[in-house]
Amino acid sequence: MTTTTDARTTRRREQTRARLLAAALEVLGEQGLARSSVENVCERAGYTRGAFYSNFATMDDVVAALYADQAGALVERVEQRLAGGLPGTDLDQLVGHVLEVLPLDRQWHAVRTEFTAQALRSTEAAAALTRQRSELRARLAPVLVEALHRIGRRPTVPADDLVRALVTAHEGLVASHLLGEPAGVGPRLLGVALATFTEEVPR
């Protein structure tokens, strides 16, 4: 039986973890993993090293947790944005709606880049990244297929392949955008990708 004290302890732990992750997101976005440290994160969050180590073992664990949290939040935003139906009826409008909720900020890009670099160094991190990317695609696939259905289109490839192509394209486009490429290039190319891998449903 859960007591009031247990519930308060759990809530405080969750709040501590959330503040540490928020601080880590800022620090990583500003400094990158190589220059970031447990001390940096603790100072930014206003906690001691003890609080950090009661939630995470290493900064690599923080990066993995940030990626998991942000990937989950991304899917939830897409689901909520598309759940009520689309006011338009074409691919350009679908791309526009999806791009409204996909992150284009440096912090998220920094976390994704650091986690990918971490996965190249560690088989454990690689397995975690592969699993999380697979889960991300599994959650996005039915949302995207349903959105396509509502505008009278369907994938011409397996849904997982379609989402894989779009996610990969978007990640590359975000990097280009942050490096100064014109903002309009991304939506146009994503629209081309959707048009290439989908078709109109015969009436």
Automatic annotation (TrEMBL):
It comes from the Bacteria. Keywords: DNA-binding, Repressor, Transcription, Transcription regulation. Residues 37-56 bind DNA. Transmembrane segments: none annotated. Pfam families: TetR_C_6, TetR_N. Coiled coil: none annotated. InterPro entries: BetI_C, Homeodomain-like_sf, HTH-type_TetR-like_transc_reg, HTH_TetR, Tet_transcr_reg_TetR-rel_C_sf. Residues 14-74 form the HTH tetR-type domain. PANTHER family: HTH-TYPE TRANSCRIPTIONAL REGULATOR RUTR (PTHR30055), TRANSCRIPTIONAL REGULATORY PROTEIN (PTHR30055:SF241). This is TetR/AcrR family transcriptional regulator.
